[in-house]
């Protein structure tokens, strides 16, 4: 399913006032807000709850990666947040047992998705990190997505370049949350595998994770509106 407003804005800041101001300004224009480790490590549960009180569903992007018991305990703690996050995640490279332990701890109370291969990593980067050199990022992202599906997870975070393969293998109901999104005229910055919002939706993305292209715009609300218009006009 493609969400009615598929924009998930990444509130990547450690400044509580700025995160709250962005949440207030952007809530009429986006479908979801993403809180990541930069903010959560600085402000913890109380900061999360302040931003979540603005009322939009939250993707709590903490990318857990540890042994099954530790990840399960951490997920249990995250399920006590009020309001509960709509989406939480783990790294698929944590393995099948870890993902199953996370799934059991979440127990259907939030969507649980797995990070496959970070959108900031190229083929050279993953080879340096020890992935098999005869296979590329798309192959590894698809294998990790299949593992996440086997573990009973709801979907994955993946690059726009990995979407078609993952959709082909795992079907339309498997949730795809896609960062590495850049409007046609925007700088790539540290992301390496990017696409425009319309191209990512056309390739089957359910949610588009968009940070700096919105939050660092002179008028973030106008930037979000322009991205939404680019989707409807495609
Ligand atoms: O500013 P930008 O649009 O590049 O922000 C992308 C967001 O998506 C960041 O919050 C980043 O942590 C997150 N993300 C990513 N690649 C992944 C998973 C999450 O860029 N594979």
Outline the fold blueprint.
Layout: E1 7-10, H1 16-26, E2 32-36, H2 37-52, E3 58-64, H3 68-78, E4 87-91, H4 96-106, E5 111-115, H5 123-128, H6 137-150, E6 155-157, H7 163-170, E7 175-178, H8 197-202, E8 207-210, H9 212-215, H10 220-232
Parallel strand pairs: 1-2, 1-8, 2-3, 3-4, 4-5, 5-6, 6-7, 7-8
Bound molecules: cytidine-5'-monophosphate.
Residues 10, 12, 36, 61, 115, 118-119, 157, 179-180, 191, 209-213 line the site of cytidine-5'-monophosphate.
What does this entry look like structurally?
- The chain has ten helices and eight strands.
- By secondary structure, it is α/β, with parallel strands linked by helices.
- It has one domain: Aldolase class I (TIM Barrel), CATH 3.20.20.
- The radius of gyration is 17 Å and the shape is globular.
- The model has no long low-confidence stretch (mean pLDDT 94).
- The protein binds cytidine-5'-monophosphate.
- Cytidine-5'-monophosphate (C5P) binds at residues 10, 12, 36, 61, 115, 118-119, 157, 179-180, 191, 209-213.
Low-pLDDT residue spans: none
User: What fraction of the residues are assigned to beta strands by DSSP?
Assistant: 15-25%
CATH topology tier name: TIM Barrel
Helix percentage: 40-55%
| Strand order in the sheet with the most strands | 1-2-3-4-5-6-7-8
List keywords for this structure.
alpha/beta, 234 residues, 10 helices, 8-stranded parallel barrel, TIM Barrel, globular, binds cytidine-5'-monophosphate
Condensed summary:
The protein is an alpha/beta fold and 234 residues long. The chain has helices at 16-26, 37-52, 68-78, 96-106, 123-128, 137-150, 163-170, 197-202, 212-215, 220-232, and strands at residues 7-10, 32-36, 58-64, 87-91, 111-115, 155-157, 175-178, 207-210.
């Amino acid at each position: 399913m493609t969400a009615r407003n598929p924009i998930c804005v990444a509130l990547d800041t450690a400044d509580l006032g700025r995160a709250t101001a962005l949440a207030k300004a952007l809530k009429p224009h986006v479908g979801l807000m993403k809180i990541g480790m930069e903010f959560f490590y600085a402000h913890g549960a109380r900061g999360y709850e302040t931003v979540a009180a603005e009322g939009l569903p939250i993707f709590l992007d903490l990318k857990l990666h540890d042994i099954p018991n530790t990840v399960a305990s951490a997920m249990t703690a995250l399920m006590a947040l009020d309001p509960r996050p709509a989406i939480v995640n783990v790294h698929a490279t944590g393995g099948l047992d870890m993902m199953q332990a996370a799934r059991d701890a979440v127990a259907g109370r939030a969507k649980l998705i797995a990070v496959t291969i970070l959108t900031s990593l190229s083929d050279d980067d993953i080879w340096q990190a020890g992935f098999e050199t005869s296979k590329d990022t798309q192959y590894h992202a698809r294998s990790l997505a299949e593992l996440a599906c086997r573990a009973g997870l709801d979907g994955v975070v993946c690059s726009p370049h990995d979407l078609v393969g993952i959709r082909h293998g795992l079907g339309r109901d498997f949730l795809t949350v896609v960062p590495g999104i850049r409007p046609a005229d925007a700088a790539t910055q540290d992301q390496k595998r990017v696409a425009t919002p319309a191209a990512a939706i056309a390739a089957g993305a359910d949610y588009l994770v968009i940070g700096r292209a919105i939050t660092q715009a002179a008028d973030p609300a106008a930037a979000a509106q322009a991205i939404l218009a680019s989707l409807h006009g495609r």
